[in-house]
Structures are given as C-alpha cells and as structure tokens.
Design brief:
Layout (H helix, E strand, L loop, with lengths): L3 E4 L2 E4 L4 E7 L7 E8 L6 E6 L6 E3 L7 E6 L4 E6 L8 E9 L11 E2 L3 E6 L1
Length: 123
C-alpha cells in the first residue's frame, strides 16, 4: 500500500509560481510512475504531467508545456511539480497518482491517489 500526500498549493497572482510536492510512503517508490492530474470546477480531470520511476521519461500536457516541470527525488520518496507563469486557467485541485510498473490495471489507470491540493490563480 502506498499513501500519497500532496502539499504546496495555495493562492497566487497570475504570472507567479508554486511548487507542489507529492510525498509517498513505502520502500519501492522508484517502481512507480507518478502523475499529476488536475480538476477545475465543472471540468473533467486532466493529466498535467507524469514521470517514470527512474525520472528519465517525462510527459507534459500541451497546456502546461514550457511552464511546468516535473521531477522526483527517490531518496526522499517525493515528486515535485514546479509551476511557473501560472494563469487563472490553472486554477484546480491538483492530485498526484501512482502506478506500479507491474500494475495489472488497465492502461491509464492508477493504483493510488492522493487527496489533492488546491491551487488558485487570481488575475
């Protein structure tokens, strides 16, 4: 079992920055792909960024590419999402999710989810 705890959300002015953290329990953190999702009020959840277990492969949604950077520190069991040049449309609850490399779930599904952290960007 893996528990994920997000932190770092808050209120920020447009153009500002925030760094989200996703801290995980467990001893096999490097075996998990970690993704950041976000869900704005009245909208579907969308994937923002993801990172492979060894940190080599990264994915960004077009909407955040060039502004967000995902990274991980496996020694600290933590994944980060550095968010720069934030815009009001980035306002959402941000969730991190973990998928084990040997997961039996369908492609695109995740094994564990965090509770989320609110990011609010005001103009």
């Amino acid at each position: 079992q893996v528990q994920l705890v997000e932190s770092g959300g808050g209120l920020v002015q447009a153009g500002g920055s925030l760094r989200l953290s996703c801290a995980a329990s467990g001893r096999t953190f490097s075996m998990y792909k970690i993704s950041w999702f976000r869900q704005a009020p009245g909208k579907d959840r969308e994937s923002a960024a993801s990172i492979s277990g060894n940190g080599v492969a990264k994915y960004y949604a077009d909407s955040v590419k060039g502004r967000f950077t995902i990274s991980r520190d496996n020694a600290k069991n933590t994944v980060y999402l550095q968010m720069n040049s934030l815009q009001p449309e980035d306002t959402a609850v941000y969730y991190c999710a973990a998928r084990h490399r040997a997961s039996q779930r369908l492609s695109g599904e995740y094994d564990f989810w965090g509770q989320g952290t609110q990011v609010t960007v005001v103009s």
